[in-house]
Write a structure and sequence with these properties.
The chain is α+β, with helices and mostly antiparallel strands and 703 residues long. Among the domains are: 73 residues, Immunoglobulin-like (Sandwich), CATH 2.60.40.1080; 73 residues, Immunoglobulin-like, CATH 2.60.40; 167 residues, no CATH class; 79 residues, no CATH class. Helix content is 15%, strand content 24%. A four-stranded antiparallel β-sheet has the order 1-3-6-5, with no helix packed on it. Strands 2-8-7-4 form a four-stranded mixed β-sheet, with no helix packed on it. It is globular. The chain starts with a strand and ends in a 17-residue tail after the last strand.
Length: 703
């Protein structure tokens, strides 16, 4: 076991992290002085929080060794000056606001490079303007101290009267990694969606050409090939009976009817076309085969692509944007199934008879161990032996793989991950009497012991149990607004179980894997505290169905009986994911490159919520906005008296967002600092996070 860093310097109230690598068995952490610093451990990270000024020693132990780290906690800066946010990205020509609070004396804002960005200060707000693409800093000073804001200016464009939104459908796609010669769970398969709007707010679906291409991300990493980074194309025909060219992916759409759509290419420097899908009103590139290895051979789970919309006749660029195609090979079973001399009980329980295979190739080793164990466990099962013959593995799974016939898990165990959305059905196999893949794995492993904590996986209530097999402690798949939510102690408020339930719930035979998920309204409803529950399922893992449908997804989408967020649409025909981000990566994401699009479109990270992102001017409406919302900004000052304060069947009441006392709630909070002309009530300067209420202008408890 190793830890890094071995020393921390924190301010009171600040939280630092110590990374724990290669631990053996259960990991514990302890502070020598909890009045100075407290600690907690989860998923390879020790969080250290400064409580009061002083020093403490943090001791981290696993089953074999003990490591220590020193922590020094100091008082906060004597100056009260604070700025928020301290890191901003914006598009060329756009402005973004930084809230400045508790200044002392004269305040100024100065850019380190005015050729990239300029800065000015007034009335508690620093205004930063993007001039050209690049990075710089803005220093905000008062009479006693200074704060620095990191600034990135992008050249993402919305030319003329168009706005382009692009996104990945799942927030994370998994693939088996480098080797497909033993067995395959998931191929390299990513999906890109996009929608184009004109500035009247209407979708543009014809006479345009949309393309995607590889571009470097903010760190300079670029990914323009896949076939040289995995042996998938060597084995794909043996696995699925299809033979796409190198760097061309599978496309499941149409496969059920025998007419699969053409595969799409790995992003390169040459633009590749996207196809318009009239059923969903989006442009798509289904099944893009991309890997988590960039062109320099380094791991990058978030390769970046550029999407461009052009006039199909003139070739004129209408708009462009960037997004990520997240992919991880951290879907692995090696924690328990890799050959080892360890006596860890979880690993011992997974050992085939008489011993591990100890394959010299670590990519093949754990997979071959699994096939051998599967053969041994099911040897007397007639349903299993019959399925082997039907699937083309008559001599057993390991024998088949060792004789150059790799095993496709879903040939026997059906999986809704292989979904043909054109025919609205699961493809690639599944046999009667054989449990579905999601059911088989989660039921079988619910009572398995976690090799790190020696606790049953089903009894672990946080994401560490899921990260044993899913992406992951390194990938950090759960990185969106929900995944980033923390409690007062700095610990995660929500985990995988908040939406999926525990492992036994996921493996329930009555549940359809990938399909039976909670909807947005399962958490966002009037019965939940603050209209934001921390779990969308009940104790049995069944989704909560409230009576409040303000934040509802679409019924019977994509098939009757389901209502999945990733297929649902809302305001102006836009897909929910277009504005709110993909599942697992709801805006704002902790991966900054995923926020570039929303920053470029509206000047700040987060759900696309500014009317001017899609409209030249703010529309005048009492209830025609997203989720029945009214207009915002100066125009609403004059119009809000026309609102039905009690709401209607399709419009929430004022109190829904502003609270029963009209004093504001998180739903009425603004995302960035704003200046509002409130007419007779004067100019209002509200900082980011300010909860707008009746008393923002009128006399009351929040003047």
């Amino acid at each position: 076991m190793s830890i890094s860093p071995t020393s921390l310097a924190l301010k009171i109230g600040e939280t630092g992290k110590i990374t724990v690598s290669n631990p053996s068995g259960r990991v514990s952490s302890k502070s020598s002085n909890t009045s100075v610093a407290t600690v907690s451990y989860e998923s390879g990270t020790v969080k250290v929080k400064g409580i009061k000024a002083g020093s403490a020693t943090i001791t981290i132990k696993d089953s074999r060794s003990s490591k220590t780290a020193s922590v020094t906690v100091s008082s906060s800066s004597s100056s009260g000056l604070t700025v928020s946010p301290s890191v901003v990205s914006l598009n060329v020509g756009n402005n973004t606001n930084v809230s400045v609070t508790n200044p002392s004396g004269t305040v100024s804002a100065q850019s380190s490079d005015s050729a990239i960005a300029t800065a000015s200060y007034g009335n508690g707000t620093a205004v930063i303007t993007g001039v050209k693409a690049g990075s710089t800093t803005v220093v905000i000073r008062d009479s006693s101290t200074s704060k620095t804001v990191s600034v990135t200016v992008l050249n993402t464009t919305a030319i003329g009267n168009y706005t382009l939104l692009a996104w990945n459908d799942l927030g994370m796609h998994c693939m088996d990694g480098l080797d497909f010669s033993v067995f395959a769970i998931l191929p390299p398969y990513n999906t890109l969606h996009a929608q184009l709007k004109d500035k009247s707010g209407k979708l543009v679906t014809s006479n345009v050409l949309l393309t995607y291409e590889a571009v470097a991300d903010s760190s300079g990493s670029i990914n323009t090939s896949s076939a040289d980074k995995t042996n998938f194309w060597t084995w794909v025909q043996d696995l699925v009976g299809l033979n796409p060219a190198p760097d061309v992916g599978l496309n499941l759409d149409g496969l059920a009817s025998g007419s699969p759509a053409p595969g799409n290419k790995t992003p390169t420097l040459t633009p590749a076309p996207m196809t318009y899908n009239a059923a969903y009103n989006w442009f798509e590139a289904e099944g893009i085969p991309i890997t988590p290895f960039d062109d320099a051979g380094k791991k990058n789970f978030y390769p970046t692509v550029k999407v461009v919309a052009k006039d199909a006749v003139t070739g004129k660029v209408l708009a462009s944007t960037t997004t990520v195609l997240p992919v991880s090979d951290e879907m692995t079973c090696k924690g328990c199934h890799a050959s080892t001399d360890s006596t860890n009980p979880a690993q011992t329980a997974a050992k085939p008879s008489p011993n591990w295979l100890f394959d010299n190739d670590p990519e093949k080793d754990w997979k071959r161990n699994i096939l051998l164990l599967h053969d041994q466990k099911q040897a007397s099962n007639s349903v299993f032996t019959s399925a082997l013959t039907k699937a083309g593995y008559p001599n057993g799974l390991l024998a088949s793989a060792d004789n150059n016939k790799p095993v496709l898990c879903v040939a026997c165990h059906a999986s809704n991950a292989y979904f043909d959305k054109e025919n609205k059905t699961t493809v690639m196999g599944g046999m009667a009497g054989i449990p579905a893949f999601t059911q088989a794995l989660h039921q079988k492993h619910a009572d398995v012991i976690d090799p790190t904590t020696n606790t049953k996986l089903n009894d672990i209530a946080n994401r560490s149990s899921c990260y044993q097999c899913h992406p992951g402690s390194v990938t950090q798949c759960l990185r969106g607004a929900m995944g980033k939510a923390v409690d007062a102690q700095g610990d995660s408020s929500m985990s995988c179980q908040s939406c999926h339930g525990d492992m036994k719930a996921v493996g329930n035979p009555a549940r359809q894997g990938w399909f039976n998920e909670p909807t947005c309204e399962s958490c966002h409803n009037s019965a939940a505290p603050g209209k934001r529950a921390l779990s969308g399922v009940n104790a049995q893992g069944v989704e909560i169905v409230p009576t409040d449908h303000t934040f509802a997804t679409n019924a019977d989408t994509p098939v009757p009986g389901l209502n999945l967020y990733r297929f649902s649409k809302g305001h102006g025909g836009l897909q929910c994911e277009a504005c709110h981000g993909a599942t697992h990566a709801e805006y704002p994401s902790s991966h900054q490159d995923e926020n570039l699009q929303s920053i470029a479109i509206q000047g700040h990270a987060g759900p696309v919520a500014e009317c001017t992102a899609c409209h030249t001017t703010v529309p005048s409406t009492v209830n025609g906005g997203p989720h029945g919302m009214h207009s915002t900004g100066d125009s609403w000052v004059k119009q809000h008296e026309n609102a039905n304060k009690n709401g209607t069947a399709t419009t929430p009441s004022c109190s829904y967002c502003h609270g029963t006392t009209s004093a504001g709630t998180p739903l009425s909070a603004i995302k960035v600092a704003k200046t509002i002309d409130a007419g007779e009530f004067g100019i209002k300067n509200w900082p980011a996070g300010y909860q707008v209420s009746c008393f923002s202008c009128h006399n009351g408890p929040n003047p």
